[in-house]
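TL;DR need structure tokens for one chain.
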Amino acid sequence: MSADIVHVVDDDESVRDSLGALLVSAGYAVRLYASATAFLADPPAQQGCVVTDVRMPEMDGLELQEEILRRGLGYQVIVMTGHADVPLAVRAMRSGAADFIEKPFDDEVMLESIRRAIEIGRQTRDRLAEARAAQNLLALLTPREHHVFDQLVAGRSNKVAAYELGISPRTIEIHRARIMDKMNARSLSDLVRAALAAAASTGGHAS
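>> reply
TL;DR here they are.
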């Protein structure tokens, strides 16, 4: 049984029920919503994915996707569409949807899309957790240690780093030892990985 939840959002009760039955038989926990506003009224834990129809009253699937992004809810979104709505589904993909499925859909096509969306979600959460951990460790460094850290992950030797910072190579070695300890790093490659993870979370430089 999967721990992931698939949230089905569709104003068509027959589609909700049939898709829900399919997903339960495949081992997923399922929650059904008759509208986007019902889903957004009390969005559950950020696990699994959202499967939504494009055309719904009040708030359509594209607007739901945009609201999920705006709120930072973290769900991967799969959009269901009729043939006439494919351009809307393509637009949804360009806005970050994991996939779009044309109705009527093949069960295996839907299940594979959901498996893929859930895996993307897991990988994204793992990267975010790694980034947060790296940022938390970097926050432990003093301003001077940050400067030394930057030199080290840029691949500069102790001698060159010492010259750049106007301190002695021995002082660099002392700072390096403290940095390795604070960052729980066993090697320079661990520091580089932490720098890359932290930079990914900010879209720029790790420090």
